[in-house]
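Service request form, structural biology core

Requester: graduate student, group of Dr. S.
Request type: structure prediction, single chain
Budget code: on file
Notes: please return the result as structure tokens.

Sequence provided:
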Amino acid sequence: MQNSIKIIQNALDTLQLPQLITKDDIKKQYRYLSKKRHPDLGGDIKEFQKVNKAHKLIKKEMGL
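Core staff response, request fulfilled:
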């Protein structure tokens, strides 16, 4: 259980989100960071992959 909390917190940190968020907050921040980090738009592929992984994890763990 404690490990799951740390994993979720790391994902929230990657997306630069606080612990108390709404589904819309997650969506907006993910879109913002995806555009900012996307390799086709001058971003870093590894950072882009971290954002995608964090978003998928949060959606899975929160049932979104």
